[in-house]
Amino acid sequence: MRVLVVEDDPDLGRQLTEALTQAGYAVDLAPDGEEGHFLGDTEPYDAAVLDLGLPKLDGVRVLEKWRNAGKDMPVLILTARDRWSEKVAGFDAGADDYLTKPFVTEELLARLRALMRRAAGHASAALECGDLRVDTRAARASVNGEPIKLTAHEYRVLSYMMHHQGRVVPRTELVEHIYDQDFDRDSNTIEVFVGRLRRKIGSNRILTERGLGYRLIDPKVEKIVE
Amino acid sequence: MTETPGAGEAEGTRTRGSIARRMLVAAAVWSAVVLLVAGWSLQAFYRAETDQQLDLANSDTLRTLANAVDSDDLGEPRFDDQKLPKDEKFGMTFSGRYWAFLDVDAQANVTRVRQSQSFFDERPELPAGSTAKAIAQPGETIQIDAIAPNDRLVRVGLQAVVLSGRELPLILYSGIDRTAADQAVGRFTLRLGIALAVLALGIVVGVVVLIRYGLRPLHEIQDKLGDVRAGRRDTLDGEYPGELSPLVKEINTLIVQNRKVVDRARTHVGNLAHALKTPLAVLKNEAKGTDRVSEIVRRQTEAMTNNVNHYLKRAQAAAQAEVLGARTEVKEPVEGIARMLERLHRGKGIAIDVDADAKAVFRGERGDFDELVGNLLENAAKWCKSRVNVTVTRSDDGLQVIVDDDGPGLPAGHRAKALERGKRLDESEPGTGLGLSIVTELADIYGGRLHLEDSPMGGLRARLELPAAPL
User: Fold this and answer.
1) Cα separation of the two ends of chain B
2) B347 touching A, CB under 8 A?
């Protein structure tokens, strides 16, 4: 899962980036409204953390422009001013949640998780596909109750596919959602990650749809027919 | 910061007299002086005119008398009775017309007299020195007032004539009773007095009307200023006389200035909030460790956050409660906040019904109203199962905002505690616990009240009473 953080305070930006990365997300940080708007407009994010008081282009305008362009990722706004009219303006522009500064990053992570889950139509913090289970709170996966050790990238691939289980996820989409923008992307590495994941969780769970992408299934419900 | 003196009694102003009374007194004194001078002049003028009439008649008689007298060789006066004045009044006793020839000695004492029959048995009486004066200017007529026969006042003309062969002049006397003339002057003076008194009354009434009319724009300004303070009006609009429009302009500038100062204060407060909160967030997140320092930093940043929030909100509110003419239409902000909270709690799926009287207008700042209603609604949305009802009604006493939810409610014993500053009854729910206490304090600043009651929907009912702005 890939998250955009638009925050002008360098310390807070760094803290958020670190906390989100640690929680298993690919993170891009934009230090002002213009860059934030550009990234959100051109890159596919699973969620955005948007400060309202931004240089160059203010947060509400950024959000409005995203929504007008049809970007529908969940957006959590950060406000310092704590005025209701500002919050209402943020929500009317299309925000999904807000946090008032100062806040602890755990709170932000919990809210973001909930937003992304809701956006993907899942109700609980734990995503399940048969006996495969991903706990987004702890960024851990298990099969049949047995924990599986995953690298950060492997977790991101699995987590994204869990959020979109049953649907064909194109390889390019996966690339876009597991790497931040500074990463040197190579779609061949996806095959490597998928291969490793298959070894760790069982090869019958990730289906390759030729020419289209991958699909996560519950092998007890749907069999792979090669 | 906690004091919010009523705007009613401004210090340093006392009533000293009134412009109306000053103008009235000035007008009365001035018109009295003018009317008295005018009255006295008119009366004097009329009297002089009357005297002149009498003097003319005397002069005629004196000319006739001068023609009727001559002197013989011895220097004795010789009268030609045919030429004496013909008027029969001179023959009637005390008729009011008199003539006489007066012989005088060297000391100007009257020695011999020939006089008209109208004198009857009396003699012409003259003020001392008048004969001497006539002798000093022979041929000239001396006009004087004298006591005449029958103790009446007469207008007397004296003329000294020098007859040939005589060393001493003969004095001619003509008198006219001036009682009638004096009565005419008296009547005239009386009528004049009445006329002038009526005029004076008219002037005073006119001045009163003038003052009323002239001061009306001032009363208008006073009424409109009251409206501004009550929030019915933004500035003193309308047209004013040239003398007042600079004052009105100044007052309007002052009103705008007042708003600007409050706005600026609010902006500064907001900036301070922004400036403090981001560093606090950074500190809070950096102090994650379990060591002593981290723990202290964590605890202290938490305390700082609470204090910053609390006092900034209070400062904002205190600044705003004093702004002139603040009014907030209630419907739109309530609906906005309800819309926002519904979206915020989409996962839970709640419905917030708003029923707000379109005539409900809060006498205060928008930001404060948002804070009041936002906190109540946020609490309700947090605790409700699925439904929240907001009703805003307007009565004669003010506004009433009722927020009902279908949540678990709050036992009566916990309600007072829930309103205390920084108290959070359920520590597991996120929030600073400032919500209800800030509502209580804000309501206090505006002279309102917050009540917590049982809701007919099963949960908690928050009933907030606030002052309404006049329509």
Assistant:
1) 30
2) yes
